[in-house]
Amino acid sequence: MVQVTTNIPAVPPAQRGYWSGVLSRLRRDPVSMICAGVLALLILSAVFAPWLGLADPYQGSMIKRLAAPGTPGHLLGTDEQGRDMLSRLIHGGRLTLFIGLMPVVLAFFIGGTLGIIAGYVGGITNTIIMRVVDVFFAFPSVLLAIAISGALGAGVLNSLVSLTIVFVPPVTRVAEAVTSGVRSLDYIDAARASGANALTVIRVHVIGNVLSPIFVYATSLTSVCMILAAGLSFLGIGVRPPEPEWGLMLNTLRSAIYVNPWLAALPGVMIFATSLCLNLLSDGLRSAMNVRD
Amino acid sequence: MSATDKPLLSVRDLKKHFPIKGGILGRTQAMVQAVDGVSFDVRAGETLGIVGESGCGKSTTAKLLIGLVDRDEGDIDLGGKSLGRDISLRALRRDIQMVFQDSYASLNPRMTILDSIAFGARVQGLDDPAGRARRLMARVGLDPDRFAGRYPHELSGGQRQRINIARALVMSPKVVVLDEAVSALDKSVEAQVLNLLSDLRAEFGLTYIFISHDLNVVRYISDRILVMYLGEVVELAPVDMIWAEQAHPYTRSLFSAMPSMDPDNRTQKPPLTGDPPNPIDPPPGCRFHTRCAFAADICKTRHPALGPMVAGSPHWVACHLHDPASGHPRAGQGVPA
Amino acid sequence: MTPLLQIDNLDVRFKGGRTVHAINDLSLTLMPGETLALLGESGSGKSVTLKTLLRLLPEKRTDLSGDIRFDGTDIMTLSGRALRSYRGGDVSMVFQDPGLALDPVYTVGQQIAETVMRHKGLSRENAMDVALDMLHRVRIPSPKRRLANYPHELSGGMRQRVMIALALACRPRLLLADEPTTALDATVQIQILLLLRELQREFGMGVIFVTHDIGVAVEVSERIAVMYAGQIVEEGTTRDVIRNPRHPYTQGLLAANLHDVARGARLDAIPGAPPSLEVRPDSCSFAPRCPMALPACRQALPPVLTPGPRRRVACLRAGETLAAE
Questions:
Q1: DSSP helix/strand/coil, B244
Q2: What share of chain B is helix, strand, coil (3-state, %, to 5)?
Q3: Is residue A112 part of a domain?
Q4: Per the CB < 8 Å rule, is A193 touching B153?
Q5: How many domains does chain A have?
């Protein structure tokens, strides 16, 4: 049998999988790296907050109310109850990040599953799933979050549920669209033609190819989710005081604008910085995943 | 055909219509009659070429044969067993496989070549899927040590097509349907792949159904040719017979439409004007009558049946010109020169 | 007579993740009113050549060197208004997939009229008249009705006719065609090829027709240039190149043609695959696959022999077939 002469070198280079290629491209993107660094810092400080030797975030002092940043002992000043801002910001990051990221993670799995099923099976299943999703889509996300949270009541768990419900429909939409696109390709036909059942085809062929677009889309939702979570707390239907949480802090520090505007702005700056980094990192991820060798 | 000469694959009155839904309630507004009553037999070891233009239904027929699309009506018999009655779809898929047109979409971009080929064997529970895949890779001319771990985007079109062929053969099918399998390849690569297909056919005793729009390729590889137009079979004959004389006016136009290879003898007039029509609401009577140079009144009302040109001839045609009893002014005289 | 198009020593190199030397030292002359077929397979550089002529290549990623003169004017120095007038006005292009090249949100009439208005400065009404006339000339049935059609309402063959009408509306002196019939059915393809031949006689423009199909090249052109690995390996009149191919690649292409081959006979396939063009060729690019290759072929670029006026072959051994005659 005549061997086919090719241009591929005799010794194949070390097999680079798709994901390691994505990682290396990401590493070469300065913006993404900076954002990843900032986010890592935020997340790590949030996770290890209790062990960072910070002041007690719940310990207030009426004398030291609204101290300006730079006051000895309080690097970023104190809030309206005299609690140390730096400590509250870092501890607040734990809750904000949790409520900001967890719903998207849950929505990714729930919405992804629903969307893939709807996209692959098609027909009446698709219609049912997608029309139900459309009902939720009809509401602006902020309104929906407020409505559900209002109905469930305040609290971390309720916020989690409410935000997850808000983000499942968009993820489902994207998952369905991408899966429908892949469904019509020849290699899916070939897999079906070899006698595989639907579950096998989805598991082996569909998931690998639809995961990245859904994942990238989900990461782009994280910044919105963060802002919504902070917003819910700001409105009083999210985290309850005295828990430190950036959105809640924005609310309680509102009146401090007249005394010391920097203090009032600090939680907002944290929300802004985190959400910006999430956005930019998600963009960088999309570019890194888009390139085909 | 003698009693022992039973065909390996037998298709009878295959029909597939696709509804076009529209309007607010999604009501069916029209039917695309993609395949409308197609019948043919294929003997073991032979190669049947199917030709036709856009809308003729050849790709839909291919998908019906391997069960990717459910038929509305008709019977598919493989080795005497009827699909649906005697054998399941899953069992049918072991014996009849398809090679797709090489395109970006024919191989899973996220799977290695080895996994893509071995998938079918794994699904069907065959033993040693990886070993089978490697042996087939070598057989189609790709060194498994160099290619097993590669991804489709690293290969050329010709190499990907060899992978497609290996994938189709991993389950040792009896019949292989090739749907425009060489159409996307450069001519020099096409020749290599055709040589490979001929070798494999001889070595494994395969039966091919070769679908293409390229008459030259079909002539080269096939024993018999089937011509489709608007979902129907209009002519069916051994290759040499149809090459010498095309019985159906459409087939004749199709042959004349091939570009000339002689610079001193270029085509002067197109054999057919207009575009191939849409299979939605095809014309009544003979579906070709709207473009046929020899159409008569009978052609607009009566549908010609597929039958031998002369009794006992293996050359079959569906045209009133060849049927002495049709009522056509030129009935029984064939196509004028 | 000034050549309509004169390309001298064109080099096109794509930078970026991978370097690709798409075109290597290409020289070509086209006289007014001539139809030239650029015959080659994928990766030969034929489409890149056309895109270079219209300056359609991405500027940041492309390194261009060489001389391209259209009717005496150096097109590489054109910019701004002169470039816009050149594109579509002097030279226009017909693409392979009319579905992608036509704007789906404008009617056919609007698209043709727009280009006429821009290049000739006509009023909208007059431009529509020109559009109607062009649709007549490309033999579209019911042209008046088609003016108001959107591209998706037309079949593939009709869309291609519209694209031809669009390309010729401003009476360019050179028409570039990038495999315009590859995606069409056989019966439609032959109609479009004959249409192009007729229009070329009517309008008198020069045509460069890119194709991989020898039959198409024969039907549409009087001259053929065979491309391989970014170079022209053989050029001459269609009759001469088809009847007397002198380059082993051309001979291989013609031998691989299924037109006259006996059924089931072993095909004379050219083994191997084209080079990857990551480095600039410094020897014959076809040598690894050539049945007639000599050691000398791998050591230096092949000489370009000219067995006749405007007939050339880039092969060391082409002289032998000459001597044998």
A1: helix
A2: 35, 25, 45
A3: yes
A4: no
A5: 1
Q: What CATH number does residue A208 fall under? A: 1.10.3720.10
Query: What would you report as the CA-atom Rg of chain A, rounded to the nearest whole angstrom?
Result: 24
Range of the domain at A285: 78-289
Buried b (16+ CB within 10 A) or exposed e, C159-174: bbbbbbbbbbbbebbb
Q: Which residues of B touch C228 (CB under 8 A)?
A: none
pLDDT digits (tens, 9 = 90+) for A145-182: 889 888 888 788 888 999 999 999 999 999 999 999 99
Average of per-residue pLDDT across A262-286: 86
Both tokens assigned to A79? 């809030």
A23 within domain boundaries: no
How distant is the Cα of C289 from the closest Cα of chain A, in angstroms? 9
Q: Higher-confidence residue: A56 or C55? A: C55
Please check whether residue A40 lies inside any domain of the structure: no
* Cβ–Cβ below 8 Å for B275 and C185: yes
Residues C275, A2: C-beta atoms closer than 8 Å: no
Diameter of chain A measured on Cα atoms: 91
Contacts of C272 (CB under 8 A, 6+ apart): A4, A5, A6, C288, C289
Taking CA atoms, A51 is separated from A82, A87, B141, in Å, by: 21, 11, 63
Q: What is the pLDDT of residue A2?
A: 41
* Residue-level pLDDT at A5: 42
* Amino acid of residue A19: W
pLDDT value for A11 = 36
Q: Which of C194, C213, C220, C259 to mutate to test the interface with B (most CBs of B within 10 A)?
A: C259
Q: Does the distance separating the beta carbons of C273 and A2 come in below 8 Å?
A: no
Evaluate if residue B254 carries a pLDDT over 80. yes
Scan residues 207-226 of B and list those with Cβ closer than 8 Å to A: none
Confidence of residue B164 (pLDDT cuts 50, 70, 90): very high
Q: Give the model's pLDDT for residue A15.
A: 47
d(CA C220, CA C242): 13
User: In A, which residues are within 8 Å of C276 by CB distance?
Assistant: 7
Of A105, A38, A16, whose CA–CA distance to A291 is shortest? A16
CA atoms within 13 A on the CB side of A81: 13
B251 reaches A (C-beta below 8 A):
no
Residue C160 Cα distances to B5, C45, C88, C182, angstroms: 48, 23, 17, 11
> Would you state the pLDDT for residue A6?
42
Which chain A residues are within 8 Å of B107, Cβ to Cβ? 187
Answer yes or no: is A116 within a domain. yes
Tokens of residue A131, six digits: 């029309």
- What interface predicted TM-score (ipTM) does this complex get? 0.86
CB contacts of C271 in chain A (<8 Å) are 2, 5
Chain B residues with CB under 8 Å of C158 CB are 275
